[in-house]
Design brief:
alpha+beta; 2 helices; 26% strand
Length: 147
């Protein structure tokens, strides 16, 4: 049988353990909220650039009747100080914009097709296929932000 002081000590230890565990849970939740906040900001930054590139490539196609072989051919720089861009020619037009340095970012890149132009015109948002820094895919929907 435990004495009264042992009950108190056991109760204090249990309370301390539960506080420590709940604090750890709060830290994990806070980290995840911050990661999601960063991801949304990254997706908006990459998405805005992606939208502009796709818009220019579609303009090139409208003027010349074909997609450019490269971004350079369309008069678009493939490198900026913070991003790299590439045209993805598959079953239509796709563009990928990647951060050149991923320090301080949650996402490494986002990809979109010319459907982002229609989505923004109809809904004001665009759906992007992005990638976390660790390489895992994530779909993001963000509003069109003009720069």
């Amino acid at each position: 049988m435990l004495s009264h002081s042992r009950h108190r000590r056991t109760a204090r230890l249990l309370l301390l353990a539960s506080l420590v565990l709940s604090a750890c849970g709060d830290d994990d939740a806070d980290r995840e909220r911050e990661r999601q906040r960063l991801a949304k900001a990254d997706a908006q930054e990459l998405g805005s650039e992606l939208f502009d590139v796709i818009d220019q490539v579609v303009g090139y196609r409208s003027a010349l009747g074909r997609l450019p072989a490269s971004l350079r051919q369309a008069g678009i720089d493939s490198l900026t100080p913070t991003t790299s861009r590439r045209i993805d020619r598959g079953r239509g037009l796709g563009v990928t914009v990647s951060f050149r340095r991923t320090d301080g970012h949650a996402l490494s890149q986002c990809h979109g097709t010319e459907m982002v132009l229609e989505d923004v015109a109809l809904e004001g948002t665009m759906r992007l296929d992005c990638q976390w820094i660790d390489g895992a895919p994530v779909e993001m929907t963000v509003p069109r932000v003009t720069r």
